[in-house]
Specification:
Length: 339
């Protein structure tokens, strides 16, 4: 009989919170679906779960540890003081305290967050990445001659397609300068500019630390986008239901992939996961070009865990129902050895 655990579910506060603040009302809303799904799943497999939202005070964690004494923290924290740049710092804090927690450690989060660094590491190890350049703020904006149009310009550290819209795809030097400038100013961020790879948008979910399980591949399908139009996973393409309907955008299981190609993709994703020192669970975004060349786009450690999102759907198809998936993530977090 597996031991039942005390699990503290940690998530983002949208304003300063107290240690015993009740979020039952929020957990019934659409915006809190992940937190609600995870908490319900923990209860359904027999764990005792309590929750805590952190906004700007990590001392709340210490207070809660004293009153609840959890065996493990279920980490759903993605920002601190509304700044998503701090997710790895929160995890560093857990590591320094020697706390057991779910998901990825601070090194993996840091490497994956910086799109330029992750691509440099993988390119060095022979994994295909689009040609790219990182343009820091304050540097003169010029396009290197080897970077061919069309080019996708995005903030170097944002996630969930923030900062990506149709205007991110540029076709002239003037547009290139304008968009890089826009990223520098509007997002107060360095920019990454990379060649647009025409092809299929694949999402590969993995779970594990030493031994990795690759789950069935998902794909973002662009049904209504004309053949000659670029297909880019903008913020709206991922999160705006009306926009998705209009352009026939659907996430589904990838079909018609040659079994050998699937094996190659799985092996490539395992290498990426290890090279970027990811542990816990992650989703890796790829582009499959018409010649079956696989390009790495980005890695997302701790992807969204809502029961109706790609990660959980892939696990379900692999024979891992939602509650078991959440339990597995917890058990794995208990066993993770952190330096």
């Amino acid at each position: 009989m597996k031991k039942k655990l005390k699990v503290l579910v940690l998530f983002d506060g949208t304003s300063p919170t107290t240690v015993d603040q009740d979020f039952t009302k929020e957990l019934k809303t659409k915006d809190w679906k992940t937190e609600a799904d995870v908490t319900a799943a923990l209860g359904s497999v027999g764990h005792t779960a309590e929750h805590l939202a952190i906004y700007d005070d990590v001392d709340l964690v210490r207070q809660k540890l004293e009153t609840f004494a959890p065996d493990i923290l279920f980490n759903l924290v993605e920002q601190f003081r509304n700044n998503p740049g701090f997710d790895q710092n929160i995890v560093s804090f857990f590591e320094m305290q020697g706390l057991a927690f779910t998901g990825c450690g601070s090194t993996g989060l840091t490497l994956c967050k910086h799109k330029g660094i992750s691509k440099k590491i993988l390119h060095y190890h022979g994994i295909h990445v689009p040609h790219f350049v990182v343009i820091p703020r304050g540097q003169r904006i010029t396009r290197p001659k080897q970077l061919k149009f069309p080019i996708l310009v995005k903030p170097v550290k944002e996630e969930a397609s923030y900062g990506i819209s149709q205007a991110s795809l540029v076709g002239t030097d003037e547009q290139f300068r304008e968009r890089v400038n826009f990223i520098h100013e509007k997002y107060n961020s360095d920019a990454i500019a990379e060649e647009y790879i025409d092809g299929r948008e694949l999402y590969v979910s993995l779970i594990g630390n030493i031994r990795l399980t690759v789950l069935p591949i998902r794909e973002l399908v662009f049904r209504e986008v004309p053949p000659n139009e670029p297909k880019i996973a903008t913020f709206k393409a991922k999160w705006d239901d009306e926009y998705r309907k209009r352009w026939g955008l659907e996430n589904q299981f990838a079909e018609d992939l040659d079994p050998q190609l699937v094996t190659d993709i799985e092996e490539t994703c395992k290498r990426i996961y290890r090279l970027l020192t990811i542990d816990g669970y992650a989703r890796i975004d790829l582009r499959l070009a018409p010649d079956n060349k696989v390009y790495f786009i980005e890695a997302n450690p701790n992807p969204i865990l809502a029961s109706d999102e790609d990660f959980a759907l892939s696990a379900g198809k692999a024979g891992l129902p939602y509650a078991e998936l959440i339990d597995r993530i917890v058990r794995q977090g208990m066993k993770t050895v952190r330096d």
